[in-house]
Amino acid sequence: MSIAAWVAGGLTGLALALLVYALMPRRVSLSRRIASFDAGRAPAARATNYPGDGKESALTKQVGTALARFCAEQGWEFGSLRSSLSLVGKSFENYLATKVLLGIFGLIVPPIVVEGASMLGIHISIIFPVWAALVLGVIFFFLPDLELKQQVDARRKDFRHAIGAFLDLVAMNLSGGRGVPEALMAASEIGQGWAFWRIRDALSNARITGQTPWQALGALGEEVQVNELKDLASALSLVAEDGAKVRESLTARAASLRRREIADLEGEAGEKSQSMLVAQMMLVAAFLVFLMYPAAQVLINA
Fold first, then answer.
1. DSSP assignment, residue 28?
2. pTM above 0.70, yes or no
3. Cα separation of 14 and 108, whole Å?
4. What is the distance between the alpha carbons of residues 217 and 200, in angstroms, rounded to a whole number?
5. Taking a C-beta distance cutoff of 8 angstroms, is the pair 103, 137 a contact?
6. Between the chain's N and C termini, which has fewer beta carbons within 10 Å?
7. What confidence tens digit (pLDDT) does each residue in 214-235 have?
8. What pLDDT sits at residue 56?
């Protein structure tokens, strides 16, 4: 039996199983009904989607919306994942659709390759495409997680760098005689970049909702999982009434952040130096082998 017959039979069986599952009446539990009701109201309560959304295709939108609705009905919130996606400007629906579609792509590639090889006269055992499909499906399914982790780490590093500049700007505004709320808003309006945009957006929303600026900064730090911003909010809530103490605290925190950033940069430079040293040693070893090979051949032939 050819690979095409196996694939066709498997897809037919899967389609029949899904059809039977869809036609079977299911009793929905109360918790799932409540989760489905909350999912309908969720867009107003969830974190805002920031620039970067809206680039997915129609298929991705449909698949992602269906998967997100299914997760909401099950009561799966994925709070940490949503925070990470919000930080890099991606939608939860697009992320789910990308994972599932990549996993399906990894599953169907080996059978297609094996079928193409069989058309060329190369016969491969049925065990190989099955295991290859499973392995590739798992690998492709988790590729978006690795990409997201790299992007989130880079974004949080940029955010910490922006916080240091933000603290200096706030301290300078306090030195000019402004109050703490006015100094925070003025500093956020001076800075450029996505990090300052997020801070400015949080402070503007705080005015509308009646929150204090440090509560808004603390909520933003909780959302983007940046401890430096949460510590700043806690410090401001303690000394918000004394401008001199606030200015001294912010200056000290900015200096501490810069020292930490310099230490991280020095550590990265040291790691790159070690990598270059290993690469140079490998090049020298390869060159020595290249020089010694003709002499070794002569000795062997002699």
1. -
2. no
3. 14
4. 10
5. yes
6. C
7. 888 888 888 888 888 888 888 7
8. 64
- Please report the sign of the dihedral spanned by the C-alpha atoms of residue 50, residue 55, residue 56, residue 57: positive
As given in the structure block, the two tokens for residue 163 are: 């916080």
Q: Is 89 helix (H, G, I), strand (E, B) or coil?
A: coil
State the pLDDT at residue 130: 80
pLDDT number for residue 213:
86
**Those residues with Cβ within 8 angstroms of residue 123's Cβ, 6 or more apart along the chain or in another chain:** 117
User: What pLDDT does 26 receive?
Assistant: 57
Q: What region, left, alpha or beta, does residue 225 occupy, with left being phi > 0 and alpha being psi -120 to 50 degrees?
A: left
Q: How far is CA 199 from CA 98, 183, 225, in A?
A: 29, 13, 14
CA atoms within 13 A on the CB side of 282: 6
Residue with tokens 């409540």: 34
pLDDT at 69: 84
Long-range contacts (CB closer than 8 Å, 24 or more residues apart) made by 26-35? 31/75, 32/73, 32/74, 32/75, 35/72, 35/73, 35/74, 35/75
Backbone angles phi, psi at 28, to 5 degrees: -85, 130
CA neighbor of 68 nearest in space, from 49, 88, 87, 51: 49
| Residues with pLDDT less than 50, the chain | 41-53
